[in-house]
Amino acid sequence: MRAALIVNRITATREHNLQEVLTGVSKAAAMGAELVMLPEAALTGLRNNDRPARDLGFGVDPRGPEVRAMAAMARSSRVHLAVGLLERAGSRLYDTAVLFKPDETAPHVYHRISPGWHGKRAAPQVYAAGHKVDTVRTPLGAFGFLICGDLFDDGLVKKMKALAPDWLLVPTGRCFGNGAQDDRRWVKEEQPAYIERVRLAGMTTLLVNSLADRNLDGGSFGGAMVVAPDGEVLARLPLGNPGVLFADLPGPG
Fold first, then answer.
1. Does the global pTM surpass 0.85?
2. If residue 13 lies in a helix (H) or strand (E), which one and from where to where?
3. Are 220 and 178 in contact (CB under 8 A)?
4. Could you tell me if residue 253 is inside a domain?
C-alpha cells in the first residue's frame, strides 16, 4: 500500500482549506497513493471554545457540499481518503474521522470517544462523544480509527487491539502550550510516548497532525509519522511545515 499523509496548513477560510485538501488528494493520487490521510479537523482546525452558538458554525454537514466534494474526489482519484472533521449533526458537534472509499458514496464514520477536544465544562448535549470502536474492511486491508487522545485511553486501545485491523489511523490536532512548532522538543518529549502507545496497540499506525497558526487554534504544529507494531518509525515528516509524507507499506498478511 502506498500511503500519503498530508499536512495541510489550516487557515480561517474553510473554502480555501477544502480546496487545499482536494488539490492535495489529486496530487497524491497522481503519485501513486492508494490511501490519503489528513489530520484531525482538517477543514477548520480545533477552533472551538465551548461556546455552542459559535462552535456549531465550524461543524461540517455530513450530507453537505464539502463531504460530497471529498467523496467525489476519492472516487475520481481512485483512492481511499481518511479525513478528520468537526461534524455538526443538528444541535450536536462531534470530533469525527471519515474514510471515503473509491467505490462508495457514503463514508465510514468514527466519532472520537475521549473528551480532550473540548473543555471539561462543555455542554454534553452539544459536544458529543462516540461510543464504539470498530473497523472497516477495504481492498487495502482493514482500517481502524482512533482520534488523538483516544490513543492514550487504555480501554480503547485494548478494544482496537482485539479487533486487529491491518492499519490504525490516528488523526491528531496537537499543539504545545506556547504555540511552538519545535521538532526537537517533539522528538525528545512527545514522540516516545506515541511510539509506546503504538506498541501497546500492536499494529502499523499512521499519524498525521494538523498545522495552523497560533492565533487560529493555539498553533497546532503539524508533523506526521508511520510507526510499525514494534515501535520502529518507518517514515516521518518533521513539524512546522505543510507537506506530504509518502510511505510504501507491505500489504496485510
1. yes
2. none
3. no
4. no
